[in-house]
Amino acid sequence: MDIKSYIRDVPDFPTEGVIFKDITPLLKDSKAFSYTIDEMAKFVKEFEPNIIVAAEARGFIFGAPIAYKLGISFVPIRKPGKLPYFTVSEEYFLEYAKEKIEIHVDAIDPQDKVVIVDDILATGGTALAMAHLVEKLGGNVAGMVFLGELSFLNPRDKLKGYNIKSLLTY
Fold this sequence. Notes:
Blueprint: E1 8-11, E2 19-22, H1 24-28, H2 30-46, E3 51-55, H3 58-70, E4 73-77, E5 87-93, E6 98-104, E7 113-121, H4 125-136, E8 140-149, H5 155-158, E9 164-169
Parallel strand pairs: 3-4, 3-7, 7-8, 8-9
Antiparallel strand pairs: 1-2, 5-6
Helix pairs in contact: 2-3
């Protein structure tokens, strides 16, 4: 299935000069979305994790159903103030802004083998911040799985040492 055809480019969103990869047409098509979850789940399964972590909001769209499909745990990573229990945080930079994310202090144990799941790998900032959160809690980042990767932004340079799989490359 050509899932790339279900992702549209939106120029100058959220700021001028950024070409945003809009996944809503993919989500709207049940066959394309099911296919995408199945294919991403194959990548995740190769890493043999016991936990998937994903950041809000678009990461949740892929991470949670993959965790369900594989029968493993799902841990949300959120923006500050959104998680109800004690957290650890990490700051990072996007192409267009500075951000901060948090995870519950008891979400990951030292023996956990974790896969990070997200929609688009752009500069690698969000993925690296998620990896740092997992590692702060003693977990092992077994791999990272993305729907798409913007290779022209060289995100893998920032993520050296991590195993990365992307369904699509731009």
